[in-house]
Amino acid sequence: MTRDPGTDAAFRPHRVVVLALDGLLPFELGIPHRIFGRPKDARGRHLYEVVTCSVRPPGPVETDADFAVHVGHGPEALATADTVIVPASYELGPVHERGVLTEELAAALARIRPGTRLASICTGVYVLAAAGYLDGRPATTHWADAERLQRMFPKVRVDADVLFIDDGDVLTSAGVAAGIDLCLHIVRRDHGTAVANEVARRTVVPPHRDGGQAQYIQRPVPDPQQATTTAARAWALGRLHEPVQLRDMAEQEAMSVRTFTRRFREETGVSPGQWLTQQRVERARYLLESTDLSVDRVARDAGFGTAQSMRQHLQAALGVTPTAYRRTFRAGGAAPTRRPS
């Protein structure tokens, strides 16, 4: 991680090594490169360096498609990583079938230095679990595979209802799009909301979906014949600094509170109250990073009303106070992390 972004001699981009295994999904392999390849500091320097490696010497790695990819690094690259990401693979063999590593994979993982941050996308979690990294810790994967993961690795606390889990130095995500959410979350954790939002904007994806959001939303694409809650969300986003009542949101869609609440959860995976809190936390983070407004003013502009209320919500969501959060990003370091309860 960059320690002093203003000094060329001290600058070193955070090295992300992506482990490509046979049977990989090309889309998921590309997610870390797309997200971590974008962020730059104020001087135009890339904040991350992303490389892909195999468990074998450089060469072709099979995918689940009708083509292979040529990987230019062998397992020795894992020893240089600050973060290792394991995307999904459909050919994990004994890892997926019996929960044990192959000798080749075990030897590759043994090269990872202690303290390296680890992350998985979808069924890549099997690799972390088989290696023992998840024993006694919370983890997630694609909802369709969660029951099998729990049965095979009873020491892992599997949660099938979330998009991703940040457990400090080990992070896991559900499938496909949740991998994008996870990588953006890491950028946000390392460099703040403004940097992550810029990456999301260039990638044309939503800047933030909370990790606790449900994986399986009953109606992800609303029936065009039925009303949605899109207008109400847009209306509320323009009024975060004001008290926003549930009945007021429901009125924007001409629905009863009961119908609106049900449909809102079906479309977003969270309740209107949870969604509002998430948006206000994101607004507060942005203002703390990008402005010199007082904590009291940030609290009012983000809709928390008082500094005490904002402090409680940021402490619950991020594990830090507003002052500590601002100090961290103004200093150019990485955000402090905590293991969730």
Description:
- The chain is α/β, with parallel strands linked by helices and 341 residues long.
- It is built from 14 helices and ten strands.
- α5 links the parallel β7 (138-139) and β8.
- It is globular and about 60 Å long.
- The chain starts with 13 loop residues before the first strand and ends in an 11-residue tail after the last helix.
- Mean pLDDT is 87; it is low at 1-5, 217-222 and 333-341.
Short note summarizing the structure:
This protein is an alpha/beta fold and 341 residues long. The protein is 40% helix and 12% strand.
Key features of this structure:
341 residues; alpha/beta; disordered N terminus; disordered C terminus
User: What portion of residues is helical?
Assistant: 40-55%
Q: How large is the share of residues in beta strands?
A: 5-15%
Alpha-beta content class: alpha/beta
Unreliable spans are 1-5, 217-222, 333-341
Cα gyration radius (Å): 21 Å
Strand order of the largest sheet: 2-1-5-6-10-9
**Pattern of helices and strands:** EHEEEEHHEHEHEEEHHHHHHHHH
- Give the termini separation: 26 Å
What's the oligomerization state?
Answer: single chain
Molecular shape: globular
